[in-house]
Structures are given as structure tokens and as C-alpha cells.
Amino acid sequence: MGTSVEVESKEFTDASTGKKEYGITVTVKSNSRFEKESTSYIDYDEIDSLLKGIAYIAKIDKTTTKLAAFQADYKTKGDLIVSTFSTSQGKVEAGVQSGRFGGTLAYLSLSDLDEFGKLITKAKEMLDEIRK
User: Fold this and answer.
1) How far apart are CA 31 and CA 59, in angstroms?
2) Beta strands 80-86 and 92-98, pairing class
3) How far apart are CA 107 and CA 61, in angstroms?
4) CA distance 109 to 92
5) pLDDT, tens digit, for every residue of 50-83?
6) pTM for the full model?
7) What is the three-class DSSP state of 58?
8) If you ran DSSP here, which 8-state letter would residue 130 be given?
9) Kind and range of the H or E run holding 3
């Protein structure tokens, strides 16, 4: 039981024009009670913003607000939501959700969130290589 987050580089070709499009997919899988999976597509042009958003929300902590709890979200056009939030124990944790309605959510530690960012960076580097 548990959850996983997968990142993949994607290249699509329009068969009628030969035009290529690039991006990544993020698939969140949950195997808690019932197996559930959702995938979000992030266009190549949106990847840098996603990486900057992850870096920004990963730095947010309890000093950001005077309120007892906080949550910071970054959302892509493809319904991927990356969040950091405070727990009732005062820790900061993260989550990655794919899909708007009935989406799939994976909870992450901040170090796992950092690894998620590295996977996205690696996927973008692969796209940069094939786009040359």
C-alpha cells in the first residue's frame, strides 16, 4: 500500500503536419484502499514555471504567517497541484495532486519534494537534448 509519483518526458507528433510538441507527464498513483491513478500533462513552456513554483513553496514555513497553520499551492494548466502545508505537529510536509475532480494525491516529505523537482529537471534536460 502507498502512493507513488512518476515523471516522464513526452514527444508528440501531429501526423498530418509533422509538427512536434514536447512536455512531461506526472502520474500520481495511490494504492491505499483502492488502486487509483491520475496523470497531468505539463507543456514544455510551463516546466520552468513549475520548477520555480516548487522551489518557492518548498521554502515557506511557519514564519510566513502569524496564523497557526498554512498551505501554499502551485497549480499548472494541466491540473497538477503541488502543495506545502503545516501539520498539527508543526512540521512542514508536501503533497502532489493530479486531476481536479476526484484527483489522486500523494503526500511527500520536503526531501521527497526536492527529489520530485530533480525528476522534473531531468525530464526537461532530456527534452532539451531531443529538441536540438
Assistant:
1) 29
2) antiparallel
3) 17
4) 8
5) 999 999 999 998 888 888 899 999 999 999 999 9
6) 0.90
7) helix
8) H
9) strand 3-13
